[in-house]
Structures are given as structure tokens and as C-alpha cells.
Amino acid sequence: MVKRSIFVAAVSGLLASCATAVPESAPGLSGESYDLLIDNGTIYDGSGGAPVMGDIGIKGDRIVYVGPQAPTAASRTVDASGLAVSPGFINMLSWAGETLIEDGRGMSDTVQGVTLEVFGEGASMGPWNAEMKALDRQRQQDIKYDIPWTTLGQYLEHLEKRGVTPNVASFVGATTVRIHELGEGDVDPTPQQLQRMRALVRQAMQEGAVGVGSSLIYAPANFAETTELIAITEEAAKCGGMYISHMRDEGPKLLEAIDELVEISRKSGAPAEIYHFKQSGRANWGKIDAAIARVEAARASGLRITADMYTYPASSTGFDAAFPLWVQDGGLEKWVERLKDPKQRAKALAWMRGPEATENTKLVVEEPDKVILVGFKTEALKPLTGKTLGEVARQRGKSPEETAADLIVADGTRIQVVYFGMSEDNVRRAVGLPWMSFGSDAASMAPEGVFLKSSTHPRAYGNFTRVLGKYVRDEKAAALPDAIRRLTSLPATNLGLKNRGSLKAGYAADVVIFDPARVADRATFAKPQQLATGVRDVFVNGVQVLKDGQHTGAKPGRVVRGPGWTGWPGGGACK
Q1: How far is CA 154 from the centre of its chain?
Q2: Fewer CB within 10 A of the end CB, N or C, for the chain?
Q3: Could you tell me the sign of the dihedral formed by the alpha carbons of 213, 219, 220, 222, in that order?
């Protein structure tokens, strides 16, 4: 406690000397009364500049004053003395699309200060046709839900009407658009089909999508050639949107995958971002220098290339990332059928043991104790949750790859797993990159109810507080003002969002109050379902959703739309 008091006093003294740097209120607003005044806080406005002591006045859903001393009274005052006040954090890669239907509070992210969830890594919740809806109902696992929407815009509006705590936005999924027109097979689109795919992207952009998202290590996404991706991304670019991608390779061909992303950006005219920037597999850890150089060379050439990451040395996805793509041709059900066929199973397992195996495959085959089983659909298999693939293989007396195939057939799903294939040193270095944002690559959940039927990766409960606690405060891998910039204004700018991501008069009142000395993640790989600590208060659109670390039950979240939305005054930006 003594050390913390000394820390706070020292910081307060430093900040007081900088107080005059806080901007005054917007013209004409200084005489207005406020609905809410956050006073005496250490303000990090999202610009990356030095923090300052000051007040923030909020009226309705907008910030109307940011300055050293509020000139008028407020209906309610929140004292932020000794605490950091920042814009709400943006989760650049969220899988909360289903979990927010189940529980609109978005607990695991809300308690970390996340005020905007961005969906759409390859798959998006629209546009869907009748067959896609039927498949989704069939494949639903612990969470069951109706599907009254068809387009992506309708889905986002559905969430808002149901009531959700965070704001929501989405990319339109390149995989979703492909399945809509081509199904899940390894086929190329005809010129007519490609035109329809382009039209679907344009419609989604006009409904407010922020760009095109792809996930190219998976089937059927991997079946798309670069020219197809350029073509559909051109439609996003015409509407001011971006391209964002889980690239085609994150291991041996990492650099070639970055080159493809840069090519798509250059030829489509859209800025581009790399999802969960990493180097998978020990043999590829040393490629981080070259990967950074590739991005920075593209940026120096005039392209806007950025990245986002989660802050852990293990990934989490399904066994589909470890099995050959051909065995998954046609979709999940075809994959299961092929694994039931002795000849096709033998062929798939032989590939997994061969030289073309991916880094995830090598972990399955060679280091199965670095693969944790975290998500099953079938009740009979749920007792295996939390065990390693190696443990289960030894119990069954089979090879790990044979065991994985057995589990896929028995569960009828891809099975969610955790792969320990990354370097902690590389994670620490990437956290400090100036063009790096952050995304959990996880759903937003609560440690209760249906969410306890499966496990998860700790990034679902700790990704953002881990940035601020472990990497900023404890390890000095980044400076706090710049880390906040890359949690707020950088992703907002990349997404083309209007009036979000900064503490400025006229901006949306998405605000976080946290204690830099206490903020921390508590989730671990052994016990991932533990809420983070250190964030005291969170406001979304001017409404308090977290008070003294407890959820208020409020659900003021709205759809946040990209620049192509036709509902903007004067219409969208689509050319």
C-alpha cells in the first residue's frame, strides 16, 4: 500500500504540472449544464499524448466538455481522483456475435473497459440465405437462438433491439459471401457469381459494415484465390472500408502471406490489417523481424497497413486448423463423413504426419500436451474439457492424431482447442509496435450459466487488462498513453468511425475509469473464466454500465456503422 501511495502521489504531481494542456470545451458548450461530470481524473484522451488532470462533462450520449476545471454544475458527479480516464476500448476481433444474444451484458469485456465489439473474422452473421440459416441452426452448440434476420445490417439491428451493453460493429465475412453464392466446396466463382458476391459486399457496406474480413487458413475460406479477394474488397474500398485478414499462413509462409495481404490492399485500394499478428511454431519465431519489416515497408510506400493481436503465447481455434483442407471440402458434415471412411481417414492422418503439415498440425502430432481441449457440443465428451490431447490419447491408447479424428467424429464439430505454439518474447515485442491494435479473438461471456458448459482461452477474460497491467505497468513493453491510443483512437481511425475513440467535445461518451496501479487480468489457462480487475467505471453512450467494478445491468449499446452507411446525412461514402 505504501508503494502504491508513493506511485499515485508521484504521478499526480507530474500530471498537475501539465494541466494547462487539456483543451477547452467545444464552442458554445461551456455554459451548458451536464448530465454527468467526471472530475479530478487523469485524462488520457486517446491521442497518445501526455495525460493531464481535468474534468469531462457529458450531456446525453455526448462529451460536451474536456478541460482543467468544468465551468458549470452537473446533475451527477463522479470523482476520478487518482484514476485514469480514457476513451472506451475497441475490441478489433470479437466473437461475441452469439454470446451477446444469450447475455447482452458482455461481462468479460465490459469489466475490462471494452465499449465496442467488432465482429467479422471471415464469418459474419449475414448475409445468410435459407440454407445457411438451416446449417447454423443445426450446428449451434451450447447457445441456441432464433434467426429472424437475413442481412448483416438486420442482425446488428436485432442485437441493438434486444439490448446489449457494448456498441457493436462488423466486417462482412469473405467466407460468408463465398458460401452464400458457392457453398462450402473448393470451387471458383463464375464471372456472374463473382458479380453477385461483389453486390453482397456493397449491400453490407451500405448497411454499415466496416469492410471485408477473411480467415484464409480455414476451409472454405482458403479456397478463395487472391483475385477473388481483391474483387470483393474493391467494393469495400469504394465505400471507405478496409480489408482485414487472418492470413493464409502464420508459419513457414508467413512472409508470403503478408505479401498477399499487401497486394490485396494495393490492388483493391482498401487499407488492410493483419488479424492476431503472430509467428506460429518454434521454427518461425525468428521471422518476427522480417514480418515487421514487411509491414513497415508497405507503410513507407504509402499503404495503410496495420495489425491487431491478443496478448498470450497460445492461440485458440478448432482442429480444422490442424487437418488438411481437402478433407474439409464441402463443409463440416462432409469432413466427419470422410473421417468415418477408413481410407480417407488414413490419407488425412498420413498428411498430418508428413512434411506439408501446418504448425498446429505438428503440435497435434508431436506435442499433444501443448493442445488443450476446451469446447465440445456433446454432453458425453464434456468431461474431457480442460484435458490435453496428449492425456486423452494416452488414456485411449491411440496416437494423438487418431484421437483427434475420433473426437471430431464423436462430437460432430471442429472442437475448440488451445495451441501453445507462440513465443512470449515475440508477444511482448509486438505489444509495443506503434501500428498494433488489440482484439480478444474471443466471445464476451460471464462465469455463470450456459457459459460454464465449456471452457475457453483466458484472452476472453483478460486480453485488454493484460495490455495495461502485465505489459505496460509491469514489463514496460509500451508506454501507457500510447497503449491507450492503440486501444482507442487508432482502431477507430482505421475503421473509419465518426466521433468515437477519443475524449473530445462532440464525441460519443464511451468512457473508462481505471486504476493503472491495480488493473490486471486474472484468467489463466488452467482457470480461464475469471473476471479482470482494476476497471472501476465504464460508460457507453453516456450511460454507466459498470459502477465500482459491478455491472449495472444497463444495455445502451448501439450499432456503430462504417462510412458507407446510406443512413448518414447526405448518404454514405460509396462511390
Answers
A1: 21
A2: N
A3: positive
Q: What is the pLDDT of residues 202-219, one digit of tens each?
A: 999 999 999 999 999 999
Residues whose CB is less than 8 angstroms from the CB of residue 293 and which lie 6 or more positions away in sequence, other chains included: none
DSSP 68-107: SS-SS-BSSEEE-TTSEEEEPEEESSB-TTTHHHH-TT-H
If you search the block for the grid coordinates 490485396, which residue do you land on? 264
529 — phi, psi (to 5°)? -90, 65
How many C-beta atoms surround the C-beta of residue 259 within 10 A? 15
For residue 256, give every residue at least 6 positions away whose Cβ sits within 8 Å of its Cβ, in sequence order, or none: 248, 249
Nearest 5°: the CA angle 317, 494, 433 is: 70
Find out whether 173 and 118 touch, Cβ atoms under 8 Å.
no
Query: What average pLDDT does the segment 116-122 reach?
Result: 98
Nearest CA among 547, 523, 497, 538 for reference residue 89: 538
Rounded to the nearest integer, the mean pLDDT of the chain is 94
Q: How distant, in Å, are the alpha carbons of 65, 105, 348, 488 from that of 508?
A: 12, 19, 52, 12
- Percent of the chain with pLDDT strictly greater than 90: 93
Residue 286: C-alpha distances to residues 312, 367, 399 (Å): 17, 20, 30
Q: Is the pLDDT of residue 18 over 50?
A: no
Of 22, 87, 16, 82, the residue nearest 58 (C-alpha): 87
Run of H or E residues at 215: strand 211-215
C-alpha radius of gyration, the chain, whole number: 23
134-170: per-residue pLDDT in tens?
Answer: 999 999 999 999 999 999 999 999 999 999 999 999 9
Which of 459, 460, 457 has its CA nearest to residue 446? 460
- Residue 329's alpha-carbon distances to 131, 333, 339, 381, 503, in angstroms, are 17, 10, 12, 25, 48
Of residues 65, 73, 59, the one with CA closest to residue 25:
65
CA distance 514 to 41: 10
**Residue keyed to cell 465518426:** 498
SS in 3 state form for 493-542?
Answer: HHCCCCCCCCCCCCCECCEEEECCCCCECCCCCCCCCCCCECEEEEEECC
Q: How many residues belong to the chain?
A: 575
Phi first, then psi, for residue 77 (nearest 5°) are: -125, 135
- pLDDT, position 72: 87
Residue 548: strand pairing partners: none
Rounded Cα gap, residues 57 and 43, in angstroms: 12
Maximum alpha-carbon separation in the chain: 78
Three cell numbers at 56?
Answer: 469531462
Q: Which three cell numbers stand for residue 327?
A: 478433407
